[in-house]
Design goal:
- With about 140 residues, this protein is α+β, with helices and mostly antiparallel strands.
- The chain is built from three helices and seven strands.
- The strands form two sheets. Strands 3-4-5-7-6 form a five-stranded antiparallel β-sheet, covered by helices on one side. It has a two-stranded antiparallel sheet with strand order 1-2.
- The protein is globular, with a radius of gyration of 15 Å.
Length: about 140
């Protein structure tokens, strides 16, 4: 969140980048591109592709599986860590993602997230919905 000084000048935290997206499939590619830009800006080229894939999977899940009214927005937040990035995807559904048995109809997304990240999970939000988060580090060892 930006902080405001006494003279109302907004100070942006360069280690946190946040975007809001409509709940629409075309936003997946846009969110993936923003993840690449954020990770590259922070000098984390070694995890740029895995981060983009994780964002793609988590935003796709929010678009396709989150049980919420059409038009509800999805929020992505990328947080710079000492040796990596924390990716958050917030949506308005309380339904938690559940890994499925992979097959012809899909089910590979959360398995891919699990494989590419140091750890991931689901957190409640201050209001409706949830936050699905994942941590990727340059050394694969966590924060």
């Amino acid at each position: 969140m930006p902080r405001t000084t006494a003279d109302r000048t907004v100070i942006r935290d360069p280690s946190v980048m946040t975007w809001q997206w409509r709940r629409h499939r075309r936003c997946v590619a846009l969110a993936r591109a923003q993840a690449r830009k954020a990770v590259a800006r922070w000098g984390l080229a070694g995890i740029e592709e895995p981060a983009a894939l994780v964002v793609s999977e988590l935003v796709t899940n929010a678009v396709v599986h989150a049980r919420a009214s059409p038009g509800r927005e999805i929020l992505t937040r990328f947080i710079r860590l000492d040796n990596g990035v924390r990716i958050e995807v917030h949506d308005a559904s309380d339904e938690r993602p559940v890994p499925r048995v992979p097959g012809d109809d899909g089910g590979f997304g959360l398995l891919l997230v699990d494989e590419l990240t140091d750890r991931w999970g689901v957190a409640e939000r201050g209001g409706i919905g949830k936050c699905v988060w994942a941590v990727l580090t340059t050394d694969g060892g966590g924060e």
